[in-house]
Write a structure and sequence with these properties.
Number of helices: 2
Largest sheet: 2 strands, antiparallel
Radius of gyration: 16 Å
Strand order of the largest sheet: 1-2
Distance between the termini: 40 Å
Length: 102
């Protein structure tokens, strides 16, 4: 989530029909996880506003400590979010690569 955003936690929703609501105050990309189902890749991403895809913590590479299914899901979500924001992997490679000027 964005550096200046406030974290949220729905807690465990175990009653049938239970809901959770959160209002996002800060533009950016947020990841969320269903803690009991993280091992199966039950995660999601939320885009709030129209943030610049560059330097979004929510688009970072998945941590090695996450279960394999979660890492794969984060990679897929990052691709979808980048596409939704009009940012492609090719642009990232070009912008972050070495540039030689003569």
């Amino acid at each position: 989530m964005p550096d200046d955003a406030t974290p949220w936690d729905s807690g465990m929703l175990s009653e049938q029909g239970a809901t959770f609501e959160h209002t996002f105050e800060t533009e950016g990309v947020y990841d969320y996880v269903c803690v009991p189902h993280e091992v199966t890749g039950m995660l999601g991403s939320i885009i709030v506003g129209e943030p610049d895809a560059h330097d979004q913590p929510g688009l970072a590479e998945p941590q090695d400590s996450l279960p394999d299914a979660a890492q794969t899901k984060i990679e897929d979500l990052n691709t979808m979010v980048n596409e939704a924001l009009g940012h492609t992997h090719d642009e990232e490679t070009t912008e972050s690569g070495d540039h030689n000027e003569g």
